[in-house]
């Protein structure tokens, strides 16, 4: 069985509920359209808040398609995602491998996630990722790539459960989803293929604004802190439950 198939089997089960097919387990619906239901979650960066959401450029479900921020809309399927909680990095490594032993050791107690694109609730089999099967460098773009194939599509929440990273969890009253970190907090997301463990590469919104043309594409950059020790707000990610309104 492929790693992708093992992840799918281990993180979700299916059953009939009210005559329809329902998904249960540790996979959490995440989206901006009503089609994904009222357990949906919008993903945003602390810098711009939930008025601008993580978005697939032109809504195309294709490998290499850019990931951007775009204005919140409950009719935009490009903002529809599912967040898969894969358990701790340590347990994930023991069960599936995929990440390096060094990554598993450094972040063993932090939670691992995949963020899967599901326009209108339909599984695309593509996830937020860096360039597949290659250790990312600072500035590598974030894009859609097949889920579960490489560690590039994994993201570890830098909760500070494992030294030396320290906690990046910060208070944000707008973040009510609790998907990557506790309710009313944001957190940095470390790319699963990052090979720099003293200054890991995290999901980052680059210079510019979501309304700029061309749209700035999300990338990975070394995690940076202000003088008070908190992570930069363009590297902190929060969630809001329910479809956009």
User: SS-based structural class?
Assistant: mainly beta
Mean pLDDT: 85
Put simply, the count of helices is 3
Q: Main β-sheet: number of strands, strand sense, barrel status?
A: 7 strands, antiparallel
Percentage of residues in helical conformation: under 10%
What is the strand tally? 17
Q: What is the H/E string?
A: HEEEEEEEHHEEEEEEEEEE
Strand residues, percent = 25-35%
Shape: globular
What is the CA–CA distance across the termini? 41 Å
Contiguous uncertain segments of 5+ residues: 11-31
Mind telling me the C-alpha Rg? 16 Å
Protein traits:
mainly beta
Summarize it:
The protein has helices at residues 3-11, 89-96, 101-106, and strands spanning 12-17, 20-25, 27-30, 41-45, 52-56, 67-71, 81-88, 111-117, 126-129, 143-146, 155-157, 170-171, 185-186, 189-191, 201-204, 219-222, 237-241.
Molecular structure report:
- This protein has 245 residues and is mainly β.
- Helix content is 9%, strand content 31%.
- It is built from three helices and 17 strands.
- Strands 3, 7, 8, 9, 10, 11 and 14 form a seven-stranded antiparallel beta sheet that branches. Strands 1-2 form a two-stranded antiparallel sheet.
- A hairpin with an 8-residue loop joins β8 and β9 (126-129).
- The termini are far apart.
- 47% of the residues are buried.
Sequence-ordered SSE layout with sheet pairings:
Blueprint: H1 3-11, E1 12-17, E2 20-25, E3 27-30, E4 41-45, E5 52-56, E6 67-71, E7 81-88, H2 89-96, H3 101-106, E8 111-117, E9 126-129, E10 143-146, E11 155-157, E12 170-171, E13 185-186, E14 189-191, E15 201-204, E16 219-222, E17 237-241
Antiparallel strand pairs: 1-2, 3-7, 4-17, 5-6, 7-8, 8-9, 8-11, 9-10, 11-14, 12-13, 15-16
